[in-house]
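Lab notebook, page 48
Experiment: co-folding of the full assembly
Goal: obtain a model of how the components sit together before planning crosslinking
Operator: M.T.
Materials (sequences as entered):
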Amino acid sequence: QQQVKQSPQSLIVQKGGISIINCAYENTAFDYFPWYQQFPGKGPALLIAIRPDVSEKKEGRFTISFNKSAKQFSLHIMDSQPGDSATYFCAASGRGSTLGRLYFGRGTQLTVWP
Amino acid sequence: DAGVIQSPRHEVTEMGQEVTLRCKPISGHNSLFWYRQTMMRGLELLIYFNNNVPIDDSGMPEDRFSAKMPNASFSTLKIQPSEPRDSAVYFCASSSRDRGSHEQYFGPGTRLTVT
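Observation: model returned without errors.
Model output:
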């Protein structure tokens, strides 16, 4: 059972456009929601993360929007650049016995055309 | 800081052979995770350790897979015997729960090809 559902599977955006990737979860015990970025031949790396006490977090061109009641969160990449072309994973983690385990979405392959 | 170190980076082996993947976590991190990544199944958690103790191995595909963490600075993932369907990229990641962070730091991965 997929704990975190991610869409779309792939996304093509023109340079300068906005990239939007969406994720949904069911487990209300989740309290940490990171996004990871993976370039070909590399391991995933943390891009940005949010906790449910805020509805939005922005770091440069990257923004996470969080909707606690809908149990959804999304990544927005403003002014998308060819260098943003990568695979993006959303994830979620909870307290207690999970001991830092991350539940990952299936990933979105983003291609930004110059 | 050297980051998470994995070896080998590439492994090509024949079906039926034993394969051992190695991981050195970031010094001071007390949680270690093994993942497998394929196009079909995405990023799957195989097993994770906390303070060298296996916490959850429910993601290990079958008895052919085993993992050990004999000390805080070394872990192995072994496949015996290997099969073509084990071909994938295997990642090791580490994190530090003591600092209250959930961030996982991934190694560069081992690309395994079983012919």
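Interpretation: The radius of gyration of chain B is 13 Å.
Next step: discuss with group before ordering constructs.
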